[in-house]
Amino acid sequence: VEPISLGLALAGVLTGYISYPRLYCLFAECCSQKRSLSRETLLKDLDSKLFGQHLAKKIILNAVSGFISNPKPKKPLTLSLHGWTGTGKNFVSKIIAENIYEGGLNSDFVHLFVATLHFPHASNITLYKARAEWGDQLQQWIRGNVSACARSIFIFDEMDKMHAGLIDAIKPFLDYYELVDRISYQKAIFIFLSNAGAEKITDVALDFWRSGKQREEIKLKDMEHALSVSVFNNKNSGFWHSSLIDRNLIDYFVPFLPLEYKHLKMCIRVEMQARGYEVDEDIVSRVADEMTFFPKEERIFSDKGCKTVFTKLDYYYDD
Ligand SMILES: Nc1ncnc2c1ncn2[C@@H]1O[C@H](COP(=O)(O)OP(=O)(O)OP(=O)(O)O)[C@@H](O)[C@H]1O
Q1: Ligand 1 geometric centre to CA of 38 (Å)
Q2: Does the keyword Nucleus apply (predicted)?
Q3: Is the pLDDT of residue 138 over 60?
């Protein structure tokens, strides 16, 4: 048999087994690439990478794996992540993205929107004007991405600083509609990040600490009241919540607890290993000691979370 015919025959056999789209997906990123998210892998990732966030871990594991395994969800998954700076909200969004798409945040189907970067907050612009000027652009962007891939992930950072006109614009996509202008948004995932409610979350964590209870004993119900009071009543996020929460468009509120000294040390060790250094406990303690903690008297929680520990590490490795 000549090589060309053999090649053609082989290709024929192969394409019989592997359809064109599947063959294509071997070489390029496909929307349906990771059809089945593994609950075990997500659990393993959360357990090994995310420190000090037992509530967030549990909610995210159940919400994301349940949603992905549902072949016909009635609405898109909407998660609202709240908490102090540097406690892992962006980080966990990255873990979710990586468990659904190989490329994680770099995937063509994962989209990050930073309210203050993409549309500056202008308090003097009216709701109507903002909706008309920016809302249409935002809607087109979401529509375009979801029509290219139903399982698109949208991460909205700094949600509490987002103009009411934009929140108004994304509302129809979050609802229980089967189709909006002939497109279904029911398989999409929307993750909203904000610092709204951070003080109240911290108050609860502090109460537990002061009464000698373990942080892991904090239950979601201990946080619910704290979150609803502060988030509903916050003047900056009031509109967001009156329009999204009152209509039950948010599926899960996910509180992120402030991080303690021991969690900072865990973050520092991970970073040392990532840079290829052996973990040096002396440096770990020195970097953690440089961080600032609150409240003033007890000094329990890091005021920047794990956010700046990495730059402090540079000082010890300046070669
Ligand atoms: N709970 C955590 N467990 C492990 N690493 C963490 C945790 N929190 C933060 N980090 C580390 O610190 C970095 C910064 O945290 P991240 O960007 O997720 O904070 P954030 O909560 O989104 O803060 P902000 O509200 O300021 O946006 C992460 O990339 C991660 O490396």
Answers
A1: 23
A2: yes
A3: yes
Please tell me whether the interface predicted TM-score (ipTM) of this complex is above 0.85. Answer: yes
As to burial, measured by CB atoms within 10 angstroms (0-12 exposed, 13-18 middle, 19+ buried), residue 197 is buried
The CB of 307 under 6 Å from ligand 1? The reply is yes
Decide if 94 contacts 105 (C-beta within 8 A): yes
Average pLDDT score over the chain = 85
Region of residue 5 (phi > 0: left; psi between -120 and 50: alpha; otherwise: beta): alpha
Whether the CB of 65 sits within 6 Å of ligand 1: no
Ligand 1 atom with the shortest distance to the CA of 158: 27
Determine the Cα–Cα distance for residues 127 and 77; give it in Å rounded to an integer. 26
Ramachandran bin of 86, using left for φ above 0, alpha for ψ from -120 to 50, beta for the remaining angles? left
Could you tell me the pTM of the whole model?
A: 0.88
Ligand 1 pocket check for 76: Cβ under 6 Å:
no
Cα 172 to averaged position of ligand 1 atoms, centre (Å): 30
Rounded Cα distance between 182 and 71, Å, is 19
Query: Using CA positions, which residue lies closest to atom 7 of ligand 1?
Result: 88
Q: Where are the alpha helices (DSSP H) in 156-277?
A: 164-174, 198-210, 220-233, 238-244, 261-274
Establish whether 83 is an annotated binding residue: yes
